[in-house]
Amino acid sequence: MTRHTHHSIDYVELHVDDVAAAKAFYGDVFGWAFNDYGPTYAGIRAPDGDGEVGGITTGDQRGSGSPLVLMISDDLEASLAAVRGGGGEVVEGPFDYPGGRRLHFRDPSGNVLGVFEPSDG
After folding, report:
1. Other CB atoms closer than 10 Å to residue 88's CB: what's the count?
2. Are the CB atoms for 70 and 15 separated by under 8 Å?
């Protein structure tokens, strides 16, 4: 089982035009398997089948088309305070989602990343 480490990179979201088409592409080209969460989101299964390493989604988060890198947190409120204290700007959240709570922030160089706290702690 994967051990998740506080503030390590844990998940990457790819923003796509069409989830079904992206699943077909990544499945055919790289052999990826998915967990379906509806027409606008699919989780990318870990190679060993234990958990997920990322997701593909449609929606307003696409921005420049860059992937959204997500770090895991043991305490989202402490992560929020650290982002603000370090000069980052919270651009969304914190908000609830089916897997827990998360926020998106812009670092001082303009990169947008996310931090999430899973609902199972």
Report:
1. 19
2. no
pTM, entire model: 0.76
pLDDT digits 0-9 by tens, 2-20? 567 888 888 999 988 889 9
Domains and CATH numbers, the chain: 9-118 (3.10.180.10)
Can you tell me the distance from the alpha carbon of 104 to that of 71, in angstroms, rounded to the nearest whole number?
10
The residue to which tokens 């992937």 are assigned: 67
Render pLDDT for 27-73 as a digit per residue (tens, 0 to 9): 998 899 999 998 999 999 998 988 999 999 986 655 556 789 999 99
Secondary structure E strands in 31-110: 34-36, 41-45, 52-57, 68-72, 89-97, 100-106
C-alpha–C-alpha distance, residues 77 and 79, integer Å: 5
